[in-house]
Specification:
Elements lengths: L1 H20 L11 E3 L11 H17 L1 H4 L4 H24 L2 E3 L1 E3 L2 E4 L1 H22 L1
Antiparallel strand pairs: 1-2, 3-4
């Protein structure tokens, strides 16, 4: 799971660098957003508070992972994806002061690979709970 964790962070960071440094946004429908807030741009310009809250949340998830996430594959995948996505966005906040979002889908706010990982992790978490409840 550690390799998957690092792979998700690497893919997100590499794609962000490519889109920021190489991609010509003027000639496409892809958009670059420097999100200084949290999800959907809420609470902008509170970078230090958001960084602090991210650290606390990621630390708690990691510290209590054995208690909250049982020993099944869906729970392990859930934790890995959520931690990787959160960590990658935290890297942006620490070094840039904002998160780079660049994927635009109709009717959905602009997002990035890390956001996708967090949401996929939440899906795995719910599926794990459903699977466990059926047993």
């Amino acid at each position: 799971m550690y390799i998957l964790y690092l792979l998700i962070i690497a893919i997100d960071q590499i794609l962000k660098k490519i889109f920021v440094s190489i991609y010509d946004f003027s000639a496409s429908k892809v958009i670059l957003v420097k999100n200084s807030g949290i999800a959907f741009g809420l609470f902008p310009r509170n970078t230090m508070i958001i960084i602090g809250l991210n650290f606390v949340l990621l630390f708690c998830l990691f510290k209590f992972r054995k208690h909250f996430f049982q020993n099944n594959l869906l729970h392990k995948l859930s934790l890995t994806f959520i931690l990787a996505g959160g960590s990658s966005n935290l890297i942006d906040r620490i070094f840039l002061g904002y998160v780079i979002d660049f994927i635009k889908v109709p009717f959905i706010p602009v997002f990035n690979i890390a956001d996708m990982a967090i949401n996929l992790g939440l899906v795995f978490l719910v599926l794990g709970w459903i699977n466990r409840a059926k047993k």
